[in-house]
């Protein structure tokens, strides 16, 4: 397990590092990175998710148990974080950043890891994890913003946030293709496959370019607290819920993998738009991305031993 994860992590680390170097050396214009993120988020990654789900053989995947495990464990962790809010000793906007760092996940790292470890079935499992987790973490995050941030949100704005999420819409469209027995036209499927494949290296480059280590050093307490929840508490709760529900095999491994991922760089955008502490969110994202290089293999190996599927 450890060796396989390290081998799968190596190209991810190299590409993220390249993104950081390109940004610091100003090899590309500063305006390139926001546009690249937009292209990946709205076009390339949705193509990957839609095509992966629409063309995958989901017959052997316990879709309901996988989704239930992810939704329940994430919701329980979110509730615990809110209950523990006084212990973090931060103001409301800063708490929203700690909250996002505790439950959000990096799509690009997760999909690349799952695909590298398990191949096409890993891509399908990753897309299903996204379909379950994207609405869950977005609803929970927006609710926390509505309570603790400076912006005040309505139910309508929460629903619009979900309806405008291209990853969620693409995943649901792919699942609908499966449910209704539809097939992607022969001339279109290769184009979707090629666009989707381009999303992973470009997305990882953008992850590297977005890292801000200067801000990470200013927030040792929130970094430590959110990372302990993200890399330890959330995966452990997920394992417990999975055992109660009966999830096992590759589906369980992928669920644990996604719950142990570092937080998403898109959390910074949400913090900036909805009245959170955006600088703190940037620091948490950078710190967790680096910590994941050590934490992810260790946590997955420990969980593998606990779950009894170590190899």
From TrEMBL:
Keyword Membrane belongs to the record: yes
Entry superkingdom: Bacteria
Any one Gene Ontology BP term: transmembrane transport
InterPro entries, per the entry: Mem_transp_PIN-like, Na+/solute_symporter_sf
Mode of membrane association: Multi-pass membrane protein
Compartments, as annotated in UniProt: Cell membrane
Pfam families assigned to the protein according to its UniProt record, in alphabetical order: Mem_trans (PF03547)
Keywords on record: Cell membrane, Membrane, Transmembrane, Transmembrane helix, Transport
Protein name according to UniProt: Uncharacterized protein
Lineage of origin: Bacteria, Pseudomonadati, Pseudomonadota, Alphaproteobacteria, Rhodobacterales
